[in-house]
């Protein structure tokens, strides 16, 4: 269905951003007093060295300020995902360094799905009407094509998240434009990011020894992701086989 230009709500995007800003500032105020040198490293990591430095600071204060440290990682992670800002991979590794494996995995899957859902909402609020205006016939055609697979949206979303075929930020922005419902989008993201996150969280437990992010990858990890991708499409292939018989 074609949206009306009046449906654009840019002020809501500003409100979302301000909500994140207020929450992050509150957590900053709640964080224990740190030295001047440590304060330099209280920023979201842009590379592996930033992640190591931040990990050392957070690890030092985590025992007595667990809730503040956990909430800080969660809010920053969701913020990066919501506004398609690079850096979440380093927070995934950092989570593996700071928290027990299953806590880190649940944190990453939840934050990824929540941040993606907010990005989805932002795209729907400010981008959907504009894209329809620019490419009405093409978008309508894509929507019609996708509607034929609506029963399999969850499986396709899991597949897209497991595999690097399409960048995650593009999936987040394009999904509301193409009328992908929010529920399969959210749960497909939650389940789909688990396999690759598993690898980075596991690698994060040895963060101090890491020299580059590619150490998380091996033939075993590639085989695991390939198997996860095939498994995500298996129900669709089974349905087709049943119908064909």
From TrEMBL:
Keyword Membrane set for record: yes
Compartmental location: Membrane
Keywords attached to this entry: Membrane, Transmembrane, Transmembrane helix
Topology relative to the membrane: Multi-pass membrane protein
Short name of any one Pfam family annotated for the protein: VTT_dom
GO annotations of cellular component type: endoplasmic reticulum membrane
Ranges annotated as spanning the membrane: 12-31, 66-94, 101-133, 215-238
Keyword Transmembrane helix: yes
Residues in VTT domain copies: 85-205
Record InterPro entries: TM41A/B, VTT_dom
Gene Ontology BP annotations: autophagosome assembly
Family indicated by similarity: Belongs to the TMEM41 family.
Protein name (database record): VTT domain-containing protein
Species of provenance: Caenorhabditis latens
């Amino acid at each position: 269905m074609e949206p009306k230009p009046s449906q654009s709500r840019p002020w809501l995007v500003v409100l979302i951003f301000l909500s994140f800003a207020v929450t992050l500032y509150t957590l900053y105020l709640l964080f224990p007093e740190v030295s001047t040198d440590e304060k330099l490293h209280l920023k979201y990591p842009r590379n592996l060295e930033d992640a190591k430095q931040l990990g050392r600071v957070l690890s030092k204060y985590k025992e007595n300020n667990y809730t503040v440290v956990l909430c800080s990682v969660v809010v920053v992670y969701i913020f990066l995902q919501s506004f398609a800002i690079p850096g979440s991979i380093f927070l995934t590794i950092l989570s593996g360094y700071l928290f027990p494996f299953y806590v880190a995995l649940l944190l990453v899957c939840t934050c990824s799905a929540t941040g993606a859902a907010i990005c989805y909402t932002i795209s729907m609020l400010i981008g959907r009407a504009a894209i329809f205006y620019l490419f009405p016939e093409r978008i309508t055609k894509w929507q019609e094509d996708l509607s034929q697979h609506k029963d399999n949206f969850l499986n396709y979303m899991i597949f897209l998240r497991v595999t690097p075929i399409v960048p995650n930020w593009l999936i987040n922005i394009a999904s509301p434009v193409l009328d992908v419902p929010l529920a399969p989008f959210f749960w497909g993201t939650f389940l789909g990011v688990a396999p690759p996150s598993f690898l980075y969280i596991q690698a994060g437990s040895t963060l101090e020894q890491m020299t580059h992010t590619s150490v998380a990858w091996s033939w075993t990890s590639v085989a695991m992701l390939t198997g996860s991708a095939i498994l995500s499409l298996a129900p669709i292939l089974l349905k087709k086989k049943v119908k064909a018989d």
